[in-house]
Amino acid sequence: MSLALALLLDAAFGEPRAIWGRVPHPAVLMGRAVAWLDRHLNDRTRLAGAVACLLLVAGAVALGLLLAPVPGAEVVAGAVFLAQRSLSDHVRDVARALRLSLPEGRRAVARIVGRDVAALDAPGVARAAIESASENLSDGVVAPALALLVGGLPGLLAYKAVNTADSMIGHRTPRHESFGWASARLDDLLNLIPARLAAALLWLAGGLRGEWRGIVADARLHRSPNAGWPEAAAARALGVALAGPRSYGGALRDFPWVNPRGRRDAGPADVEGAVRLIWRAWAILLGLALLYAALA
């Protein structure tokens, strides 16, 4: 029931500026902790990175255990760390901006993706927004929901700490290739089940479009062991091709297409369709939470 209430609170209020404009968001505080560890422990070895990851998880679990007895703490923390409302708002903003102009679309999508956007055409902007919607449904909604359900407040905070670390130091750069290895691998492990559950939710939300075996096959083409699952399901549901070649740091990466027979001319209407799709998936997740609460 705490999870169901948290899902509803997040959907209703998202990330209110009246609060987070005055005090730092907990995710920002986690980011500061990761940055501190990066500055003080990073000797570019896997051992130091593993120690940093262990300290993050231990601190998050300890804080969760301390706050767990507070009435309503799980609901409030769940609403804070679930990202359904903010995700849908940001993705919808891309569709609106793209309808105005291509430069506006590029600026909007740059807020939610890490790839180079300067050379993206309009379909490339739309595909990037759809990929972000599907991937972040997994690690921004489904994964923290499962972490809260399985591990309570300590589990939720531990997951978000690892996910934050992965986003900051889990990159293959000279500084973080070794130091971020433990955080990146642990994040992959923690997202194995959520990514596949998110794909199933999107498949159901899309009216079971496409065979599940096709989604599985497409997911295995993706460079990520997890992101390909929700992307493959969203691609089938919307009838578009996703992933494919894109540029990072000025270098073009020739990634394979997901759902290669889908349309490659995605546009604002497809981005809006992706927003509706993730809300239907959210509704199914909410229904499952309520069912679990009734049966527990």
Folded structure, characterized:
There is one protein chain. The strands form 2 sheets. The chain has a two-stranded antiparallel sheet. It has a two-stranded antiparallel ribbon with strand order 2-3. It is globular. The N and C termini lie close together (10 Å). Helix 6 (84-100) packs antiparallel against helix 13 (268-295) and helix 10 crosses helix 13. It is mostly helical. The protein has 13 helices and 4 strands. The chain has one domain (2-295). A hairpin with a 2-residue loop joins strand 2 (246-248) and strand 3 (251-253). 70% of the residues lie in helices and 3% in strands.
Features of this protein?
296 residues, mainly alpha, two-stranded antiparallel sheet, 3% strand
Average of the residue pLDDT scores: 93
Radius of gyration: 19 Å
Helical/strand content category: mainly alpha
Q: Could you tell me how far the N terminus lies from the C terminus, measured between alpha carbons in angstroms? A: 10 Å
Largest beta sheet, briefly? Answer: 2 strands, antiparallel
Strand content: under 5%
The largest beta-sheet arranges its strands as 1-4
Number of domains: 1
List the secondary-structure elements in sequence, H or E.
HHHHHHHHHHHHEEEEH
Q: What is the percent of helical residues?
A: 55-70%
Q: Can you count the helices?
A: 13
What is the β-strand count? 4
Low-confidence parts: none
Short characterization:
70% of the residues lie in helices and 3% in strands. By secondary structure, the protein is mainly α.
